[in-house]
Amino acid sequence: MKRAIFNDRLLPYLLLGPQLIVTLVFFIWPSGEAIWQSMLLEDAFGGSSRFVWFRNFERLFDDEGYWASFETTAIFSIAVATIGLALALLLATTADRSLRGAGAYRSLLIWPYAVAPAVAGVLWGFLFNPGAGLLPYYLNLMGVAWNHQINGNQALLLVIAAACWNQVSYNFVFFLAGLQSIPRALIEAAAIDGAGPGRRFWSIVFPLLAPTGFFLLVVNIIYAFFGTFGIIDALTKGGPARSTEILVYKVYSDGFRGQDFGGSAAQSAILMGIVVVLTVVQFRFIERRIHY
Amino acid sequence: MATLQLKDVRKSYGSLEVIHGVNLEIADGELVVLVGPSGCGKSTLLRMIAGLERVSAGTVAIGGKVVNEREPKDRDIAMVFQNYALYPHMTVFDNMAYGLRNRRTPREEIEVRVRDAARILELDEYLERTPRQLSGGQRQRVAMGRAIVRKPAVFLFDEPLSNLDAKLRVHMRVEIRRLQQALRTTSVYVTHDQVEAMTLADRLVVMNKGVAEQVGSPVEVYERPATTFVASFIGSPAMNFLPVSVNGESRTLTLRGGQPLTSLDSPSPAQDIIVGIRPEDIHLQPNGQGEAVRLVVGIDLVEVLGADSVLHGRLVGSEDRIMARLPGIHRIRAGESLPLFVAPDRFHYFLQSGRRMAQQ
Ligand SMILES: Nc1ncnc2c1ncn2[C@@H]1O[C@H](COP(=O)(O)OP(=O)(O)OP(=O)(O)O)[C@@H](O)[C@H]1O
Ligand SMILES: [Mg+2]
To answer: Of the candidates B53, B69, B86, B289, which lies 20 to 30 Å from B245 by C-alpha distance?
Structure first.
């Protein structure tokens, strides 16, 4: 291939500039600031601050509330990822079988993804509003007393459902694309080789979708960790009694409501670490597990 | 081991019929080649035999039993696909063992059968590799192996060699023929390559637009093509066709330029017919015994292939295009005119409809 030659040595920098500035201003700088802040301790009146090394982190790890939030996050993200992925896979296989190439139905399924998490939260809040919502009414008829504003488990269920609904279409698109990239002859060969539909799915389709599935798993966990802030804020604000307070939400509520800037910054530094680990794991695995 | 029977098999997609009633009886152990141009319905027919496409009308019977309603897995067939359709996430061994495992074959027997197949196909060293670590030819052999370990009643091949380079194709063609003769498994082989068709087939089915135009041994099809389509499809270069008119009384055939060609032994049913001449039946000298028809040809192109040369030109007088294939190398220049000779017993006669004339 011919290499493009730029005589102007400035041009590459000019072209890269805007992106670099955006990254610097909105990512690198605040991250640095957060890490710096995580090692400062403000005095009680917010006047001055002291450099305390890792004291904020130590304080965090001694805090039972922090571990509880970890547990909530784990339950929440495992539920969101598994339910979201399983549901999307089910929808995708159904759509792939009956609707090869039928675009209209597919784009309908994609719509929920276009709904911002906060809006999704409001939507589900209306639907499940204990006083006025439609679904609590029917649940009551079936003998289930629904009030996610008091019942912590119900609140957790609700945010999980809303988060899955919001994310499932994204997963669906990827699974469907993955399914359609599996050559039809492979499935036919397996059919001739004596495999029924179930066996064909588990021995051929599923392994070939594994790379897609793994990619989505990481994306979904990251989504559950960070992308669901809007849903939680709109639906439960972390309550009742912190039962839906996942880590990101705790960063916000400790920092902005509790005014504990050092502790909040330490929490975000830990979250950053988690993202880095997830991303590295993802790249490692994706490299290894592509079949073609 | 089984026979295969197609009775008036038809296939429609919606209101569009693409296979118009094919009848075929394949004997036990026979290798039948379906050959025809792209889009004529070879794959569709094969896939109906496999059970991958529904049969719209008619019946498919394997070993005397109608299988129209049976799933592919219950038809006791194996198929080799054009792109091999190997399972990319399985090793060569697992690819071959997959069908046996699905049928709950005992582990030791799977081991024995796969190793046997691998030995026959010279794949022993590759059993632990995955398909993407193999060359095209090796993948092709794995696909063959996957078919033979199952010991099915019928093998189906859909253009299995079309992704290989020319040399490997010739090699694998011979291998397939050898294997099929050793195993004596009833086989249906689809190709659009006439050389492959001629060399592999016990019997040829020449298809055109969803119809089996002729069924017969390769020699039969070559010697007595049933239609102009078959005549031009089988044989290379394609047969020459010269429109002629029949002079009723004397049964003399006259070319469009007025030159008399020969006379028919029996009356012709039509006034205007077509004479077919194979390029390889045209010679530089009249052929010793019997009369020979002399055709003067204005040459416009010579292709020297080494073993033989192909002359392209037009008949002087009638301007009909003609090709001749002469053995050896000939340095004839374009623009020259030269006399060429054909024995009239090598003529093929066709009606305007394309059908071969009953007599002759
Ligand atoms: N799903 C389908 N819907 C409508 N028409 C189809 C469908 N599948 C095949 N056809 C038509 O049926 C005819 C036969 O197709 P087929 O694939 O059998 O051809 P073929 O002889 O195998 O050609 P090739 O040598 O190119 O593989 C074609 O005209 C094709 O357009
Ligand atoms: Mg085909």
So the answer is: B289
Predicted TM-score of the model (pTM): 0.80
What's the domain range around A196? 62-289
pLDDT in tens, A106-140: 677 777 777 777 787 788 877 877 777 778 778 87
Token pair of B177, please? 């023929």
Q: Which two structure tokens, joined as six digits, stand for A157?
A: 């269920």
- The answer to whether residue A39 sits within a structural domain is no
Q: Provide the CATH number for the domain around residue A256.
A: 1.10.3720.10
Ligand 1 atom 29 nearest Cα? B39
pLDDT, tens digit, 9 for 90 and up, residues A52-109? 777 777 777 777 888 888 888 889 999 999 999 999 998 888 877 765 556 666 677 7
Name the 3-class secondary structure at A121.
helix
Q: Phi/psi of residue A36, each to 5°?
A: -60, -45
Q: Residue A9: inside a domain, yes or no?
A: no
Domain covering B240-350: architecture? Beta Barrel (2.40)
DSSP B355: B
Ligand 1 pocket, CB under 6 A: B 13, 18, 36, 38-44, 192
Q: Please give the ipTM for the structure prediction.
A: 0.83
Q: What is the Cα–Cα distance from A115 to A73, expressed in whole angstroms?
A: 23
> Considering the domain B4-233 in this protein, what is its CATH number?
3.40.50.300
Q: How far is it, in rounded angstroms, from Cα B354 to Cα B228?
A: 5
Cβ–Cβ gap B132/A291 under 8 Å: yes
Distance in angstroms (rounded) separating the CA atoms of residues A236 and A135: 17
